[in-house]
Amino acid sequence: MRVLLVYSNSLGELLAAPPIGLAYVATAVRNAGHDVRFLDLLINSQGEQLLRNHIDEFKPDAVGISVRNIDNLVHQRLTSHLNVLTRQIAMIRQCSDAPIVLGGPAISILGKAALEHLDADFCIVGEGEYSFPRLLQCMEQKADYRDIPGLCYRFDGNIYDNNPSTLSRFGASGLEQWIDWQAYQRRGATWPIQSKRGCPLSCSYCTYSAVEGCGIRKRDARDVVDEIEHVSRTINPRCFEFVDSTFNLPPSHAQALCEEILRRNLRVNLTAMGVNPLGISRSLLALMKRAGFNSMMITPESASDVVLEKMNKGFASDAVYRSAELARQSGIPSMWYFMLGAPGETRATVNDTMTFVEQMLPHKGFLSMFTTGIRVLPGTELAKSAVDEGYFEADEKFQQPVFYFSPTVSEAWMLRRVCQTIARQPNIVHAAEDSHPVSRRITGGVYRLANSLGAAPPYWRFLPHVLRIPPLPKLRARAASRQSAG
């Protein structure tokens, strides 16, 4: 079969995320014997016209669309990705009768509700490397597809969904075969590496279990480093990023990866998202630095014991403070993520978090990122508890963007509190700032300059230095204050 695979997220944020999940699927579909064409709309400005051109030329027998995000998760500058997806599907319907199959993290979160709101034929929840080739086989042979794991489908006027399954083993993504890396590199992207799947944690707001399952499935460290070595030799990206939900849980796996990189004497730059305070230690950070980590993202979400307990984070504020001290001692630049407004949030708990940031993260090696308001996603513990508490109606499905704000503290006050700290401590960023012309010019200029100089991403690690340059602190504080007042 001729299979067109589309990475649909054309609404790129400043930092472009390469389509590692769709690359896994594309490789599996090609290995199953199909003719695959890969269309990446994120880095192409032609958008829907380019999609139309590919359909007219390729004449696919099936179209698979990967949807990474439902929206941008920022209440103050909310942008829906599903609106663009709706237009893309309508355009496909105009010029092709090929069945449309939706997949990707956003679809795994929405489940069969995606078919209730989008004009697609099928959805695949969870990992698609097995289910999608199986569906294609059933299409080709006109066989019954209704027992395929993770498949959502229409039948006799109803919508059904099957429980997803997870792969016991997986290997390299094969991303280098599918994308134009230079276009990503110009936008400061890092090369994604997945060393394990699944997350055993139970954070109340998180959907990782819907996307990857709860059980951790680890790749052998030698296999992971084989992939890094191959990509380094053939593509030579400036930085690799471990995109596991929690890089350092279990710590032994992160340690094995670092030791294997050191054993081979690879000269690569590395970073990691999702470094969890539970697995941070002095010895692991030292090993990470020796292996080539130029940065890391740490995700405490709060520094208040009350809020951390409500979020089911699995650690208390003492672990957050300890992580900050160890990160400072390691010398590895780090971005810290905080979400204000969760259940249990009050002015006092907001002050707990802001005090932590002011006392522990004022240094040039730290960048603190804030959001205010918690995007409530279907299937999460937060969604269930918010309905039980009467915050949302019992029939709320959470498919449209809705946010939780603790009733004991106002959104406006939280924004003002963050702005107060920004005025004194420039290495703090609120996610809503990305829409402001001043902030976009600053960040865009830093990224363009870093790329032109051949610097290794991620480029956010340069922002704490740049944001201190006069008169930027005053300009940002003024802009942020006007935004919070509005």
Short recap of the structure:
The chain has 486 residues and is of the alpha/beta class. It has helices at residues 20-31, 48-58, 82-95, 105-110, 113-117, 128-141, 181-185, 208-212, 221-234, 251-263, 282-291, 305-310, 317-330, 347-360, 381-388, 411-424, 437-452, 463-466, 472-485, and strands at 2-7, 35-40, 62-66, 100-103, 122-124, 151-155, 158-161, 191-193, 196-197, 217-218, 240-242, 270-272, 296-301, 334-340, 366-372, 374-375, 403-404, 428-430. Strands 2-1-3-4-5-6-7 form a 7-stranded mixed β-sheet, sandwiched between helices.
Overview of the structural elements:
With 486 residues, the chain is an alpha/beta fold. Helix content is 41%, strand content 15%. It folds into two domains: 2-161, Rossmann fold (3-Layer(aba) Sandwich), CATH 3.40.50; 188-485, tm_1862 like domain (pyruvate-formate lyase- activating enzyme, Alpha-Beta Horseshoe). It has helices spanning 20-31, 48-58, 82-95, 105-110, 113-117, 128-141, 181-185, 208-212, 221-234, 251-263, 282-291, 305-310, 317-330, 347-360, 381-388, 411-424, 437-452, 463-466, 472-485; strands at 2-7, 35-40, 62-66, 100-103, 122-124, 151-155, 158-161, 191-193, 196-197, 217-218, 240-242, 270-272, 296-301, 334-340, 366-372, 374-375, 403-404, 428-430. The strands form five sheets. A seven-stranded mixed β-sheet has the order 2-1-3-4-5-6-7, with helices on both faces. It has a four-stranded parallel β-sheet with strand order 13-14-15-18, covered by helices on one side. Helix 10 links the parallel strand 11 (240-242) and strand 12. The longest helix is centred in the last third of the chain and has 16 residues, at 437-452.
